[in-house]
Design goal:
This protein has helices at about 30-40, 45-65, 80-95, and strands at about 5, 10-15, 25. It is mainly α.
Length: about 110
């Protein structure tokens, strides 16, 4: 995930892939981050959106492989397990907030 530093008004002033002094981690899909990148003229915004959609596909693929017992959740590296659990938690929370959308984002492993 990207790391951002903020100015005295709390707005993003820089983005890094590595943590730096005073930086905080944000979701790559954060609207604030995407807006910052667009403001900076970074044409990679489209690529970022594509990456985010691909991450969702890969997450769903991993869940499918687990559900079909092709792999076990515990076979994954610990860091991957943590990230998948974090995503699962976020998707459940979003599902609780938007129960009527029917977008299927509240699936579990």
């Amino acid at each position: 995930m990207p790391y951002v530093t903020r100015n005295k008004h709390g707005l993003i002033s820089s983005v890094s892939l590595e943590p730096t002094d005073g930086s905080t981690e944000v979701l790559a899909s954060s609207p604030e981050l995407i807006e910052f990148m667009d403001m900076m003229g970074m044409e990679q915004g489209t690529l970022l959106q594509s990456d985010l959609r691909l991450v969702r596909v890969l997450e769903d693929l991993v869940n499918l492989l687990i559900d079909r017992e092709v792999i076990r959740f515990t076979d994954l590296p610990f860091a991957a397990q943590e990230k998948l659990m974090e995503r699962r938690s976020m998707r459940q929370k979003l599902g609780e907030l938007d129960l009527l959308s029917g977008n299927g984002d509240n699936e579990t492993f």
